[in-house]
Amino acid sequence: MLRKLRSSETTGLVPAGGSRTGTPPGATGSGSRPDTWSGIKQDPAYQCIPPSVRQIVPKQIASLLDSLRGLSNPIAKRTILFKSSRNSIDAAIAALTGQLEVAERFKTPASPQKVLDYLTTTAAVFQVSLPEEMGLEIYVGTLSVVPEALLKRAIKTVCETHRFKTMPLIAEILEPIKDDMWAIGWLIETCERRIAELRSMR
Length: 202
Hints:
The protein is mainly alpha-helical. It has a two-stranded antiparallel ribbon with strand order 1-2. The protein is about 55% helix and about 0% strand. It has a domain of about 70 residues. The N terminus is likely disordered.
């Protein structure tokens, strides 16, 4: 079965038969990682993609990653290689490389100044002062490794849910996005691994 990479292009890669393993937690909605983003794609093609990153993974890439899960099995890998052309492997590598670039951009952390801006806004919402110098440095240092898109959402969530007139703790800020932090790392690692496996099949 051919998997479409783009509307006018197919990989030619064929998923091997048999059981599939390696599905990440929460990918089917039944694992320990909840579907945290509203309007999430529920298409069967996304069954191998953690819910938290489905919005940045096109359906074609989701289908491709799903078809390549058999690469971890030597027998399945030989089956895929036997049924795939060099062009289809190159096309799959190109598609996954593009997805990897998207994931890496999404992972771009917030700058210290941006983190400080978010913290200042948070303090204003709860009508409290920012932590003293050393405490503020810890806040900024810890949160400046968080992807900016996720940090923005985390701040919004904590401003909506924090119930006391106090500065939210770092753990409270990170809690709403901990699954998303894991998921973006999973996506990057998976793309890198599949690209390496495909290159070995050339």
